Amino acid sequence: MGEAIRIIGIDPGLRRTGWGIVESLGNSLRFVGSGTVRSDDKAALAVRLCQLHDGLAEVLHAAMPHEAAVEQTFVNKDATATLKLGQARGIAMLVPARAGLVVAEYAPNAVKKAVIGVGHGDKKQIHMMVKVLMPKATFDSDDAADALAIAICHAHHRQSVAYRMAAAG
Question: Which PROSITE patterns does this one have (predicted)?
Answer without folding.
Answer: RUVC
